[in-house]
Design goal:
104 residues, mainly alpha, Arc Repressor Mutant, subunit A, 3 helices, two-stranded antiparallel ribbon
């Protein structure tokens, strides 16, 4: 990918139709962190992918990406999304606030 990643590029690479969620990740995490997570996603895909939490099916590339984002993203106490390691804050981005937005 180019140095500047767009939502459209993310959608194409990840085969992910949820542009607004990709836009949120890109705005929250920034170019560098988002690119690093995409790289980890593609590496995971090459190694066989990732199954869903209940183990019944393989995640889509977009699902892998959102799972990795969830593992690496937290909310600031004021509700401002920050892309920092979870252990530094402890509250995941996709936590109980918007349960319908939880990626699969």
């Amino acid at each position: 990918m180019d140095a500047t990643v767009t939502v459209e590029q993310l959608a194409e690479v990840l085969r992910e139709p949820h542009g607004p969620l990709l836009r949120q990740v890109l705005q929250t995490c920034g170019q560098e962190r988002t690119t690093a997570i995409v790289t980890k996603t593609l590496t995971c895909e090459v190694k066989g992918g990732m199954v869903t939490k209940n183990g019944t099916r393989r995640r889509t590339p977009g699902g892998v990406f959102f799972q990795l984002v969830t593992e690496r993203t937290t909310l600031h106490d004021l509700g401002i999304g920050l892309c920092i390691p979870r252990e530094e804050c402890g509250r995941p981005l996709w936590g109980g606030l918007h349960s319908s937005a939880t990626p699969s």
